[in-house]
Amino acid sequence: MRCSRYSFGPNRLHYCGPDVNAELQAEIEAGATNPNLAGILREFKTLFPYLKLIAEANNIIDPFDASVVEAYWLGNELLERVEKRYLYDFLITDLEIRKKINSRELDWLENKIKAGALPHHSFHVLNLWRQTSDKAESQHPENLSECCVNAGKIISVNGPEITVTTEMPIYLDGKFELSQVQEKKLSRKLEAEYDIEQLQPGQLISFHWGVPCEVITKKQATNLKKYTLQNIKFANQTI
Fold first, then answer.
1. Could you tell me the CATH number of the domain that includes residue 181?
2. Residue 189 in contact with residue 80, Cβ under 8 Å?
3. Are residues 213 and 201 in the same domain?
4. 13 vs 53, 80, 200, 208, CA distance in Å?
């Protein structure tokens, strides 16, 4: 269920995963006990391999374990246990990255892994997605901010509309950076009885492609910012 909330936004826009948004939405709204969600998410050819990599590196059997899902989308200590050579082999073998980038970009990628890159969602977005996505609009760095998972503090709730203050990656003068604190309006696209439906001003939430995902803690927000800044730094080395 947790992973589905993060996957819903990009899948709705046909950016990530097969054309299963209607099914994904139905399963989420049916509740967390529905067993079909795992089967749907296994069809996401980028997401699921990353979850498997993180799980295997930490001797966790279930790739949808809550800590694994958190590691990929928000970031936690599980990322630090993925050895450099395993990440490199994963990108070469599982994601077949050699077919999608040139030799110069492959050298850049190898150097970033040597320097400490980790399998966080923002690493793929800022450092690989432009080269590996088939969507023409994804070639524009300005469009990648929404693809990164972001955190926001709720300042108001008005029906389906939520206003948060947030810092998001932006593209400015040829480089990425984290924006100043700004207001952003989010719209609830899912009707399900979980914590996201009882949101209150002052809470921290994560969001992806403008869709609220879950209530998060201050520590989780700090982790997300840490890994996002790290991957902004890596992206700026070769953009």
1. 2.30.30.140
2. no
3. yes
4. 26, 31, 27, 11
Overall pTM surpassing 0.85 (yes/no): yes
What is the spatial distance between Cα 179 and Cα 92, in angstroms, rounded to a whole number?
A: 33
Tens of pLDDT, residues 77-135: 999 999 999 999 999 999 999 988 899 999 999 999 999 999 999 999 999 976 555 45
**CA distance linking residue 205 with residue 194, whole number of Å:** 13
- Residue 102: exposure state from Cβ atoms within 10 A (0-12, 13-18, ≥19): exposed
Question: Average pLDDT of 149-155?
Answer: 97
**Contact in structure between 94 and 49 (CB atoms under 8 Å):** yes
Residues 126 and 224 grouped into a single domain: no
pLDDT in tens, 59-71: 999 999 999 999 9
* Residues whose CB falls within 8 Å of the CB of residue 43, separated by 6 or more in sequence, listed in order: 17, 18, 20
What average pLDDT does range 141-168 have in this prediction? 90
φ, ψ (nearest 5 deg) of residue 152: -145, 150
Distance, in Å, from the CA atom of 35 to the CA atom of 237, rounded to the nearest integer, reads 43
Q: Say whether 97 sits in a helix, a strand or coil.
A: helix
Q: What number of other Cβ atoms are within 10 A of residue 158's Cβ?
A: 8
Same domain, 206 and 178: yes
Q: Which of 125, 128, 154 is nearest to 221 (CA)?
A: 154
Whole-angstrom distance, CA of residue 195 vs CA of residue 213:
10
How many domains would you assign to the chain? 2
State the residue range of the domain holding 228: 142-238
Q: In the chain, what is the straight-line distance between the N-terminal and C-terminal CA atoms, in Å?
A: 35
